[in-house]
Write a structure and sequence with these properties.
- The mean pLDDT is 97.
- The chain is α/β, with parallel strands linked by helices.
- The longest helix is centred in the middle third of the chain and has 18 residues.
- Helices cover 39% and strands 17% of the residues.
- An 8-stranded parallel beta barrel has the order 1-4-5-8-9-10-11-12, surrounded by 9 helices. The protein has a two-stranded antiparallel ribbon with strand order 6-7.
- The structure holds ligand PBG.
């Protein structure tokens, strides 16, 4: 690129001098329709339960969900992602509640489809909210068993599709699950159900507040997810994960977390011509909120800067707990 001349003929500050001009030349922009709102749902009626490690985020019951989904849609948000808080009595080693066609997520999907049909619904496909040990897979002799887990994930994705879910989003990181889920959806008549693959999901320390929110942290204890989620040291491997998920039938892929993995978002967006989404995760949210509560940062400005960074890196859309706040501000 040789579009630059020498100073003083070229003064790059000229285009920065006035607000209108900065707007005209902006290369990237945040828009409410870039944002996907992740929501924690719980049983009950008319109840919001705060999550201490995620100030400002509440677990909500389905009646409130219906109202908030409407608000989100009116603000220009196009999709909502559901994460259930499952009663501990329903948690089992195999996470059987995950494929109960009347589970909390399936009821939430029907509720939103009824009351706000214009908003897209994303449901997480993973067992961790449902297992008594907090892992995303079936555990035998201390190992996460890949193929048996994939069988259950297929049943989970199918009940979600039957309930009317638009996008199933496997976040478990088992091998081969995208292909298996795609095959089940095809054979059961759900050929139009989208798959958003959490293709490059890292074994990150930034998921702590999420695990508080879905009550899996205590169950997980000192165990970790490093035998299936990716090693933060790797980036070429992320491209292999993504390439495989595309081959297996993913419509969109997700990189997660966002900010610490901008290089992965960028490489993915450059290497593959399909939509890449970023997940601005719970720990990224909590850090900024905590600093803002101390008066150390302008929380909203930092959040906007982080989200814009993900877009600049190449993210087409972003899952973020600040979706409503930011959409209101925009
Ligand atoms: C479950 C899942 C997790 C997140 C989304 N889906 C947690 C985990 O993998 O332990 C984390 C999201 C966040 O931190 O905001 N498979």
């Amino acid at each position: 690129m040789t579009c630059h001349g020498a100073y003083p003929r070229t003064r790059l500050r000229r285009t920065r001098m006035q607000g209108w001009c900065r707007e005209l030349v902006a290369e990237h922009r945040l828009h409410p329709s870039d944002l996907i709102w992740p929501v924690f749902i719980q049983e009950g009626k008319n109840t919001e339960t705060p999550i201490p490690s995620m100030p400002g985020v509440n677990r909500i019951t389905l009646d409130i969900l219906a109202k908030k989904a409407k608000t989100a849609s009116q603000l220009g948000i196009q999709a909502i992602a559901l994460f259930p808080v499952i009663d501990s009595k329903l948690k089992t080693p195999n996470g059987d509640e995950a494929f109960n066609p009347d589970n909390l997520v399936c009821r939430a999907i029907k509720e939103i489809k009824n009351s706000v049909p214009e908003i897209g619904i994303i449901a997480d496909v993973a067992l961790d909210p449902y297992t008594s040990h907090g892992q995303d897979g079936i555990v035998e002799n201390g190992q996460i068993i890949n193929d048996k887990t994939v069988d259950i994930l297929c049943r989970q994705a199918l009940v979600q599709a039957r309930a009317g879910c638009d996008i199933v989003a496997p976040s478990d990181m088992m091998d081969g699950r995208i292909g298996a889920i795609r095959a089940v959806l095809e054979s059961e008549g759900y050929q139009d159900t989208l798959i958003l693959a959490y293709a490059a999901k890292y074994a990150s320390a930034l998921y702590g507040p999420f695990r508080d929110a879905v009550d899996s942290k205590k169950l997980l204890g000192k165990a970790d997810k490093r035998s299936y989620q990716m090693d933060p040291a790797n980036s070429d491997e992320a491209l292999r994960e993504i390439a495989m998920d595309i081959t297996e039938g993913a419509d969109m892929v997700m990189v997660k977390p966002g900010l610490a993995y901008l290089d992965i978002i960028h490489r993915t967006a450059t290497a593959f011509p399909l939509p890449v989404f970023a997940y601005h995760v719970s720990g990224e949210y909590a850090m900024v909120k905590a600093a803002a509560a101390q008066g150390w940062l302008d929380g909203e400005a930092v959040m906007m800067e982080h989200l814009l960074a993900m877009k600049r890196a190449g993210a087409r859309a972003i899952l973020t707990y600040v979706a409503l706040e930011i959409a209101e501000r925009l």
